[in-house]
Amino acid sequence: MKLPSCWNCEHEFKLRELVWNVRLHCPNCKKKQFLTKESRFNTLLFSPIPVIIISIMNSLNISWLVIIPISLCLLIIFMAIVPYFYRFTDKEAPFV
After folding, report:
1. Residues 8-36, mean pLDDT to the nearest whole number
2. How far apart are CA 11 and CA 53, in angstroms?
3. Of the four, 11, 25, 31, 85, which is 20 to 30 A from 55 by CA?
4. Do residues 1 and 86 touch, judged by C-beta distance below 8 A?
5. What confidence tens digit (pLDDT) does each residue in 42-56 have?
6. Whether 66 contacts 57, CB under 8 Å
7. Which of 39, 41, 22 is nearest to 96 (CA)?
């Protein structure tokens, strides 16, 4: 899998640029980057997975001392994987 690139200058983003920036601008050409509709949909598909796993562990009466570290690991994994599904465009499109 490949990290996304700028829609204008094809600059390939680094993972840390994508994880921590909410309003993303290309560091090379300074153009604003918008997620495509497909990218937002793919991100939305991954979002409930950690919640479902935590709910299952809770229903199995697993201790919170185990659930909390696993939840933190899931969050880190989620933040590291999701940017690979990002694709950028020059226009903000409605989700629906």
Report:
1. 88
2. 36
3. 85
4. no
5. 888 888 888 898 899
6. yes
7. 41
Task: Of 95, 93, 89, 94, give the one whose Cα is nearest residue 24.
Answer: 89
Mind giving me the DSSP string for the chain?
----B-TTT-PBPPHHHHHH-SS-B-TTT--B-EE-HHHHHHHHHHTHHHHHHHHHHHHTT--HHHHHHHHHHHHHHHHHHGGGG--EESS-----
Residue where the block lists tokens 């899998």: 1
Lookup: tokens for 77:
């994994």
Please check whether residue 91 is in contact with residue 35, taking contact to mean a CB–CB distance below 8 angstroms: no
Q: How far apart are CA 78 and CA 50, in angstroms?
A: 8
Side-chain-side CA neighbours of 15 within 13 Å: the count stands at 10
CB contact at 8 A, 11 and 75: no
Amino acid at 59: S
**Tokens 């989700």 found at:** 95
